[in-house]
Amino acid sequence: MLFAIPFGVIVFLLLQTNTQELLYGSLLVLTTLLYGYALRQEYRFMSSFTERTRTKRFISLQYTFDYVLILFIGLVFPWLMKSETATWLPFIGFTVGIFILSVSERAIDEKVKQSDSEQPMRREVRGW
After folding, report:
1. Where are the transmembrane segments (predicted)?
2. b vs e for 71-96, b when ≥16 Cβ sit within 10 Å of the residue's Cβ?
3. Angle between helices 4-16 and 21-47 (to 10 degrees)
């Protein structure tokens, strides 16, 4: 949540400019890397609740998919918008990719709960 507003503002500014693309693109990459670092810290915290290796792998996969989803939204989508492609095929592929990632995340949530029933869910720890 902390990165959502600056991330959205930078994507908006990147899509609106024709002269400052390098600046906003660099800020977008930096914000994405900082978000990855924050996810890594959260992963370490969440995996500290369990000793089971399988559960830790599922938790790692959850955070990896989260980061890939942010990469899709933050880097691929603006690139598609700036490239001004004439076909809808990249946008359909983007939408299908986002859908697959979202469904996979929910399936992994269930796998975490099945592998260790004592492991709290991410939304329980985050409070939303």
Report:
1. 22-39, 60-80, 86-104
2. eebbebbbeeeeeeeeeeeeeeebee
3. 160
- What values do phi and psi take at 113, rounded to 5? -65, -35
Lookup: tokens for 76: 């691929």
Q: Under a CB-based contact definition with an 8 Å cutoff, are residues 108 and 62 in contact?
A: yes
The phi and psi torsions of 21 (rounded to 5 degrees) equal -60, -40
CB 3 within 8 A of CB 34: yes
Whose CA is closest to 1, among 42, 59, 58?
42
**CA geometry: angle at 100 spanning 28 and 37, to 5°?**
35
Do the beta carbons of residue 60 and residue 43 sit within 8 Å? yes
DSSP label at residue 99: H
Q: What span, in angstroms and rounded, lies between the C-alpha atoms of 48 and 29?
A: 29
